[in-house]
Amino acid sequence: MFCHQCGEKVSDQARFCPQCGVPLREGEQETYCSVPVSRPEKIDSLFKYVLN
Fold it and tell me: CA 8, CA 2: separation in Å to the nearest integer?
């Protein structure tokens, strides 16, 4: 099967194109994460804690 948007070859079981991300089946929609992303300062603090 091929993506109707970009022409990339995709598996028959794929729900989204791995190249461009377009939904391959009617009714499929992309989902977005609703969890806030950590701020870099918190990640830096965690690395310093773990490495020391």
Answer: 5
Distance CA 25, CA 5 (A): 12
Q: Do residues 43 and 22 touch, judged by C-beta distance below 8 A? A: no
Structure tokens at 50: 């773990």
Phi, psi of 48 (to 5 degrees): -60, -40
Counting Cα atoms < 13 Å in the Cβ hemisphere of 7 gives: 0
pLDDT digits (tens, 9 = 90+) for 2-50: 988 899 999 988 888 899 988 887 765 555 555 666 566 666 777 777 7
